[in-house]
Amino acid sequence: MQKYIIQTNHLGLRLLEKNDIHYLESLESDSEVKKFFPNGASTREQVVARINDFISYYEEKGLPSFVMFELESGEFIGRCGFAPVETGEIEVGYVLHKKFWNKGYASEALTALLEWAKQNINADYIIAFAPVGHIASQRVMQKCGMKHYKNDIAKGVSCSFYRIKNLN
Fold first, then answer.
1. Is pLDDT above 60 for 58?
2. Bridge partner list, 15
3. Are 97 and 78 in contact (CB under 8 A)?
4. Residue 98: which domain range?
5. pTM of the model
6. What distances in angstroms separate CA 131 from CA 45, 51, 108, one per listed residue?
7. Which of the 8 DSSP states describes residue 32?
8. What is the pLDDT of residues 112-155, one digit of tens each?
9. d(Cα 74, Cα 162) in Å, to the nearest integer?
10. 3-state SS assignment for residue 65
11. How many distinct structural domains can be found in the chain?
12. Residue 46 lies in a domain
């Protein structure tokens, strides 16, 4: 039985652990899933390094990353969570296996993360960004109440940036 930190109608989110490499490697090495990421698909070594980064964000800054599971089947869906940005802002992000695209899971996960952030992250805003051409991800952000506030370069790519007020 998984120990979920966040649970929605369809999803269970638990903290990412070092031994989740088997989950993340299949997700991060898929070139179609990583199509809009600046570095594309990742090698096993890159995935291990990324997991270590995600764990350190939680240990040092209280910004968790989660692995997502479909409650009904128990199947691994993807990863999501928070990360610091060079500007000092807090980014929220999500990546799902293509099998789970267009089922509303990204919106469900993002909504839950934004609610969780209000209680657990001390930041005026939570931001998210996606390459200008990644319309599906931008729609998820809009659907979850995030507002477009700029276009800029992130990780060498022209991106649309969205944000939502986190503190009242």
1. yes
2. 66
3. yes
4. 6-124
5. 0.90
6. 25, 23, 21
7. T
8. 999 999 999 999 999 999 989 889 899 999 999 999 999 998 87
9. 31
10. strand
11. 1
12. yes
